[in-house]
Specification:
alpha+beta
Length: 355
């Protein structure tokens, strides 16, 4: 039996939607799972003040360190980061952080294999840099460098008379004289990523992208858990579900939008997801467990990488994604145990030879 520790920043597991599901699926697989936070770790005793789900509630109990840690939320404070890093030296962690958008883009560019799929971008710090980028590409998207859930994402287009800016579902036609003041307000003293706009649109004109949800399975191999077409509503260019977009079935979407080559498109997109996931393992020199890869497809049918998320949401695929997560966690735990056993074999052999 494998013991899995579910590490989160929230004290109460009832506030973490995945906690019960992970616990139930771990139990169904013949393992046990407990919930804990960084403040529950005692390195001197090598124990954790854990919470186990039992008979309808979470019950606290001191327990030894687990065989593997599912770190489903990254550390926020310096103290949390210190504990995470120290614990990871003892127990394998399932997840690893990718970094912000520009870190990921730079990694992909340096790795070269997926360079053709990286959208031209620039980290802009002031209005003049934004205007320079608009003059170069005519249509751009501005977005935060970190996680934003679709917030503060803007579309800016240069027109004959000035500029067209879309903020959520509102269209603003701005003159050349007004644009600087508008951009100052949009930047709000923060650096944003300016990206060339990719015209990924349905026949109806609605913007869309694909969320490629990939995970490692119980054999440590990448698999495609789901491909979710996300379609923006009305004038929106943002396909994030929290911003009013909606999902469509993958096969049905391809049959509707690419009737002549929907089978080829399906294989191409799935293969792209798996190849990119393997490539990220290589260029980061670590083993990721789960990724949410957002891509668009332009008028020529070319795939472009919008962004990559290290901890994607599980909307509509909760059980399937959670099962894969539990199975990969147990794979890591067994791999660690096998490695520990291999390290002790020479010592045992030497002891036997001396007797």
């Amino acid at each position: 039996m494998i013991t899995i520790g579910l590490l989160h920043i929230r004290r109460d597991p009832n506030l973490v939607s995945r906690a019960y599901l992970y616990s139930a699926l771990a139990h169904a697989e013949g393992h046990r799972l407990f919930y804990f936070t960084s403040r529950d770790v005692d390195f001197e005793k090598r124990t954790i003040n854990a919470r186990f789900y039992n008979s309808g509630s979470w019950v606290e109990r001191e327990t030894p360190f687990p065989d593997v840690v599912m770190n489903v939320a990254g550390p926020v404070t310096a103290r949390q980061r210190e504990i995470y890093e120290r614990l990871e030296q003892i127990v394998p962690f399932t997840s690893h952080h990718l970094g912000n958008k520009t870190v990921v883009y730079r990694k992909l560019i340096a790795g070269k294999a997926f360079l053709p799929y990286v959208i031209p971008y620039r980290l802009v710090r002031d209005v003049d840099e934004v205007l320079d980028y608009i003059n170069r590409h005519e249509r751009i998207v501005l977005k935060p460098n970190g996680d934003s859930h679709g917030n503060r994402v803007y579309y800016v287009e240069k027109t004959q008379d000035g500029y067209r800016i879309i903020i959520r579902d509102r269209v603003h036609n701005i003159s050349v004289h007004e644009v600087k003041a508008k951009l100052v307000n949009m930047l709000s003293g923060q650096h944003l990523v300016a990206q060339k706009y990719i015209n990924s649109r349905r026949k109806s004109g609605a913007a869309y992208d694909f969320r490629l949800h990939v995970q490692k399975n119980g054999s440590g191999t990448w698999q495609v858990t789901a491909v979710l077409p996300r379609i923006a509503s009305d004038e929106r260019i943002i396909t994030n579900l929290s911003q009013g977009s909606y999902l469509c079935l993958f096969e049905r979407f391809l049959e509707s939008e690419f009737p002549e080559q929907h089978r080829e498109m399906k294989l191409q997109i799935q293969a792209f997801a798996l190849l990119l996931a393997r490539h990220l393992d290589e260029i980061y020199d670590c083993d990721f467990d789960e990724l949410g890869i957002d891509v668009g497809v332009d008028e020529a049918g070319k795939i472009w990488i919008y962004e990559i998320n290290w901890r994607p949401g599980h909307v509509f695929i909760e059980v399937k994604a959670a099962r894969a997560a539990i199975q990969y966690a147990t794979y890591l735990a067994r791999k660690k145990k096998e490695g520990d056993n291999e390290e002790t074999k020479p010592e045992r052999i030497n002891q036997d030879a001396g007797n």
